[in-house]
Design a protein that fits this description.
With about 475 residues, this protein is an alpha/beta fold. The chain has helices at about 40-55, 90-100, 115-120, 140-150, 165-175, 195-215, 230-245, 305-310, 310-320, 325-335, 345-365, 400, 405-410, 440-445, 450-460, 465-470; strands at about 5-10, 15-20, 25-35, 65-70, 75-80, 100-105, 125-130, 155-160, 180, 225-230, 255-260, 265-270, 280, 290-295, 370-375, 375-385, 390-395, 430.
């Protein structure tokens, strides 16, 4: 066994997952899993996972890197506050989601006392306070800081608004005992997005304070660092796969589809610029690394809302179930949200749920074209990202890794001829992250990027397993 190896840990809400990586070869040495015990003592679940890994390896190596991510204990719960809903408030929302947060509230314009009190009662882990371009409106962010200071807010606040007002806002919040930190403005100029400084500030707070608040630091002597929330690690893994390293090229623009029990997440790494001539881009610029989270499209906690998003009758017609069958399946899931499908019919129902969730999530994530009338005639206007030329789509999550029909599910992201204005991928290769490698790739990206990329090539790239070979290169359905 090589002396250069890494241990990558994911403290999840259900399991503590481990991946041991050979850094030179970029291969997985072994995997281990234990229960999630963050709410009691994180060491218990970590011990169980390490014992599981040791059974595979025979003995545990002296790891060069021991890095962790976490989505346990409710994930990173954030609230954003901005000025205008479609501008700085939207920029703050994109920054929070891109940092791996679970967004539990988003506000725009001036907060009322009732708004601020409600935010304090929600007890977010972090609040991101934006508002005003540099040189623009500074009244609203000052007003909102006053309201939040008076409301008894206890969480750290990252200030990412008009730089002229930031020092005064920080002083107001600090005087109320709030940990206030100034970041770069998420929108320094009108329609100019700059979310990376806010994302970095969110990660700093996560490492310094949230890891302790979630109880994960009880095992801090056993790893080097908890670097980021797990969704942020997946995003960093996707970014590395797209961009490559200084010595190895990446795969180019790509999409990651993560179908979970509570949400369906879509990550896109792409500038999203128009691929056809004569198209006018409209609205807020899109972030290069964009994540959207659909809280109504989780396979277990929101199964009924997935069916209702299509309509009960349409769902029954499209997938060949009776309405009574659907109610029976939904009743079983709602009685036990950790339930796994046991029969062929239940597996078919899970596939139908996942196809619907992925199609809806992708439709919301991708941009669209609308034809507008101008003084010189009709023009094509693009809203959001153009993802039609994306060459790689990677699926992850239990129903894709363990389900009966991963390819069928993942094909739901593709361009639909019946909805030609939706800018979804037309002809990508479809891959499955069968070994849950993406979070490990993201954690390794900061300390050993070449090894991380090799590991991704060996574990996600289409040529590695028979099932991926079956998927790779197939033409998508119309």
């Amino acid at each position: 066994m090589t002396a250069e190896s890494a241990l990558l840990i994911d403290f999840g809400s259900t399991y503590t997952k481990l991946r041991a990586i050979d850094l030179e070869a970029g291969t997985i040495l072994g995997a281990g899993q234990g229960p999630s015990t963050v709410t009691s003592d994180v060491n218990i679940g970590l011990d169980a996972a390490l014992a599981d890994l040791e059974r595979t390896l025979g003995t545990l190596p002296d790891f060069t890197h021991r890095l962790a991510s976490s989505s346990a204990a409710g994930g990173l719960a954030m609230i954003t506050v901005g000025l205008v809903k479609e501008l700085t408030a939207e920029a703050a929302r994109l920054a929070a989601l891109g940092a791996g947060a679970k967004l539990i509230g988003a506000h725009a314009y001036k907060l009322t006392e009732k708004d601020a009190a409600g935010i304090a009662r929600q007890r977010p882990d972090i609040l991101l306070l934006a508002g005003g371009t540099d040189g623009g409106n500074e009244e609203t962010i000052r007003w909102n800081a006053d309201r939040l200071a008076q409301a008894g807010l206890e969480c750290p606040v990252i200030i990412a608004g008009n730089r002229v007002a930031c020092d005064d806002v920080a002083e107001t919040l600090s005087a109320a005992g709030i940990d206030a930190r100034i970041s770069g403005n998420v929108m320094p100029e009108f329609n100019v997005l700059d979310v990376e400084p806010a994302r970095a500030a969110i990660r700093d707070v996560f490492i310094e304070r949230i890891v302790h608040a979630k109880g994960i630091d009880k095992a801090e002597a056993r790893f080097d660092a908890v670097l980021m929330p797990t969704p942020a690690a997946v995003m960093e893994g996707a970014r590395l796969l797209c961009d490559g390293t200084a010595t190895e090229p990446g795969w180019g623009p790509l999409i990651v589809v993560d179908v979970g029990g509570a949400t369906t997440d879509i990550h896109s790494i792409s500038d999203g610029a128009a691929t056809e001539g004569g198209v006018i881009q409209y609205g807020l610029p899109e972030p290069y690394a964009k994540r959207t989270v659909e809280g109504d499209l989780g396979m277990r906690h929101n199964a009924r809302s997935i069916v209702e998003s299509l309509g009960m009758d349409a769902f029954a017609r499209d997938f060949g179930f009776s309405n009574d069958d659907i109610e029976t399946f939904l009743g079983a899931i709602e009685a036990d949200v950790e339930r796994l499908p046991e029969t062929a019919a239940e597996r078919d129902f899970d596939t139908a749920l996942a196809r619907t969730a992925v199609a809806r999530a992708m439709k919301r994530h991708a941009g669209r074209i609308e034809i507008k009338q101008s003084v010189s005639g009709p023009v094509a206007v693009q809203y959001g990202k153009d993802l039609t030329k994306i060459e790689t789509v990677i699926g992850t999550g239990g129903v894709l890794v363990h389900g009966a029909a991963p390819e069928e599910i993942l094909r739901a992201v593709l361009f639909d001829a019946d909805a030609p204005h939706a800018l979804r991928p037309k002809n990508p290769r479809l891959l499955i992250d069968e070994t849950y490698a993406l979070y490990a790739v993201g954690l390794l990206a900061g300390v050993a990027p070449d090894a991380a990329l090799r590991f991704a090539h060996n574990n996600i790239d289409a040529t590695q397993t028979p099932r991926k070979d079956e998927i790779h290169g197939r033409s998508p359905a119309a």
